[in-house]
Specification:
Keywords: Membrane, Transmembrane, Transmembrane helix. This is LysM domain-containing protein. InterPro entries: LysM, LysM_dom_sf. It holds the Pfam family LysM. The protein has 3 helices and 2 strands, in the order αβααβ. With about 180 residues, the protein is mainly α. The chain has a domain of about 50 residues: LysM domain (Membrane-bound Lytic Murein Transglycosylase D, Chain A). A two-stranded antiparallel sheet has the order 1-2. About 65% of the residues lie in helices and about 5% in strands.
């Protein structure tokens, strides 16, 4: 004897198959729903990944810019130090020149006046007003009032006094200069 008859067996089998089929469809629907949900989450994750990569790129660029700024700041600081050192050197040179000028002034102030050029009031002017002599000098290239006075053996102040119309800062080649009487 069979415990399960073929009649009972035939009627349960389709019912079990239908239940299993229904379960399979239900599981497939749940899986499809989950797959759709996972797919949406995956799209969100890909979008987030793209944003993260963009942010990483921006961070990298910002880091490079910060490094460049630091290098530029160091360069500017170095240039400031160099400029300050140059200003210090120039100030020292000016002080040296000022000292030399003062030394020259002191040495010329102590030097006695040349013979025949008595000074009135210590101003370097002769006691009597200078008078132009018959001689004239024609200005050559590179001449100055001092050179002309020395080459003719006269005082520079006397030379300037007898030539009031001459601009001694702009002597011209060929210009005639009156020589004072000795």
């Amino acid at each position: 004897m069979d415990t399960i008859s073929s009649e009972n067996n035939n009627s349960l089998l389709p019912m079990i198959a239908a239940i299993l089929g229904g379960l399979a469809v239900l599981l497939a629907a749940i899986a499809l729903f989950k797959l759709s949900s996972v797919s949406k989450q995956l799209a969100k994750v890909e979008g987030a990944t793209t944003r993260i990569e963009s942010i990483e790129s921006q961070v990298s660029q910002a880091s490079a810019a910060a490094s460049d700024a630091a290098n530029l700041r160091n360069y500017v600081a170095q240039m400031e130090r160099q400029i300050q050192q140059n200003f210090t050197n120039v100030r020292n040179e000016f002080n040296t020149v000022r000292t030399e000028i003062n030394t020259v002034k002191e040495s010329t102030a102590r030097r006695p006046a040349p013979q025949g050029s008595a000074t009135a009031g210590g101003q370097g002017q002769s006691a009597t007003p200078p008078v132009a002599g018959p001689d004239e000098y024609v200005v050559q290239s590179g001449d100055t009032g001092v050179k002309i006075a020395r080459s003719n053996g006269v005082n520079l102040n006397d030379l300037i006094a007898v030539n009031p119309d001459i601009n001694w800062n702009r002597l011209r080649v060929g210009q005639k200069v009156k020589i004072p009487k000795k």
